[in-house]
Inverse folding.
């Protein structure tokens, strides 16, 4: 069984790969390559897989999940310029793909810990806009 | 690192749900208001999901401009503002239900995929189509997908 929780954060980013020419960056990222940056209201949906506890009827304590999302995602990402203020993007372009992967890495272990291995992170979905979403389910 | 990237597109189109294999009464009972002989329309939303590895340099799993071109050429340009029953040859004799429309879009995407993405590149994973906010059809890309209403496969159980 899967249970999903959504959180939102607002952040700025610049989609430019330092190894590519100005022309290539413009071709690949379009307007998102603007060196001054731009921003989005990101919506993050995390799905946890597990079975309801026979006593509580819950897969996990949602208060604990909320705390993990606040500590590991929102406090790091919300109202930041991702390229300069989030360590994972010092040498990596903060595309929505890479954001999903970084969020997975930040919360995978904490989710396993609070559920003492009874549940696991199943997927991280990051909506950059209403018509673009990326889903990551861990290394395959 | 492999991710699923989904992108949404929209196109308005009209249709009428009516099967030549059913009587007038059966058509009305089956399709209700959608059987109105004058037709009616929807703003369809299509979500294409692609499975791809995130490129180390660009941080992208799929070239979105290329996906946009494919969607434009294969789906949006041929179907936008069309009467599906009368102007789209695939619906001659096939009822343009959301199910059959999903199968048709799936066929079109698969037909055009190789012309835009190279082998070993992003893989077409699935397609979802919203006829309205409440009516959604999802089709997993499979080479054997057939349209509802096509000649059924004869199974020999003997």
């Amino acid at each position: 069984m899967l249970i999903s929780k959504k959180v939102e954060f607002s952040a700025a980013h610049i989609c430019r790969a330092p190894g590519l020419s100005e022309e290539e960056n413009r071709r690949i990222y379009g307007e998102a390559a603007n060196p001054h940056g731009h921003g989005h209201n990101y919506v993050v949906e995390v799905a946890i897989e597990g079975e309801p506890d026979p006593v509580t009827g819950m897969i996990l304590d949602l208060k604990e999940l909320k705390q993990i999302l606040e500590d590991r995602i929102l406090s790091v990402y919300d109202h930041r310029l991702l390229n300069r203020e989030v360590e994972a993007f010092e040498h990596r372009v903060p595309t929505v793909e890479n954001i999903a992967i970084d969020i997975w890495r930040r919360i995978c272990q904490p989710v396993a810990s609070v559920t003492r291995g009874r549940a696991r992170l199943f997927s991280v979905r990051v909506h950059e806009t209403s018509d673009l979403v990326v889903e990551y389910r861990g290394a395959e | 690192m492999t991710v699923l990237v989904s992108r949404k597109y929209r196109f308005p189109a009209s249709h009428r749900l009516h099967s030549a294999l059913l009587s007038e009464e059966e058509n009305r009972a089956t399709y209700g208001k959608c059987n109105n002989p004058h037709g009616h329309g929807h703003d369809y939303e299509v979500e294409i999901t692609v499975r791809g590895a995130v490129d180390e340099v660009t941080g992208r799993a799929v070239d979105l401009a290329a996906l946009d071109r494919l969607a434009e050429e294969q789906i949006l340009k041929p179907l936008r503002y069309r009467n599906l029953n009368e102007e789209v040859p695939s619906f001659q004799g096939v009822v343009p239900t959301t199910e059959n429309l999903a199968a048709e879009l799936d066929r079109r995407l698969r037909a055009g995929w190789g012309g835009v993405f190279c082998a070993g590149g992003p893989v077409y994973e699935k397609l979802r189509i919203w006829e309205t906010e409440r009516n959604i059809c999802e089709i997993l890309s499979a080479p054997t997908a057939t349209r509802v209403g096509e000649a059924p496969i004869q199974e020999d159980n003997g």
Notes: The longest strand of chain A covers residues 38-50. Chain A touches chain B at residues 15, 17, 19-20, 27-28, 30, 92-98, 100-101, 130-137, 139-140 (CB under 8 Å).
